# Entry
Amino acid sequence: MTQKPKHIYLAGPMQGYPQFNFPRFNAVARALRANGHKVFNPAEKDIDRHGGVDIAKDNKFGSLVQAKDEHKFSLRTALEDDLRFICKEADTIVLLPGWEKSNGAMAEHRTAVALMSEGMEIIYLSEDICVSMEAMGALADAA
# Structure
């Protein structure tokens, strides 16, 4: 029996992580898509929202202040887009390690918990699984 593709929202910590944790978000999104799922990756959405400019590229410390100053990043706009996808399209939320230390990811998680009665699935990834997904992506890039 084939599994129906999921509509996944990818959540996790960004602030305080080098490059806002975009490399991990991108690797996990890539691995999930390789399994046929539709993935809303907030890292990609942030880049898209800023005209293709990677707002995390030179942000060594994941500083929200730097992103606001250099790119006019708006956390309100980002959360609006994120929560809209969770409420309207997602049937699954996948949480990266450290999510519980992120105010944004906790809001996304809490929204998903509220939607469990509507069939929302919540998946918590371990550090080991994320490292494996990152390694798979690196192997694919090398091929």
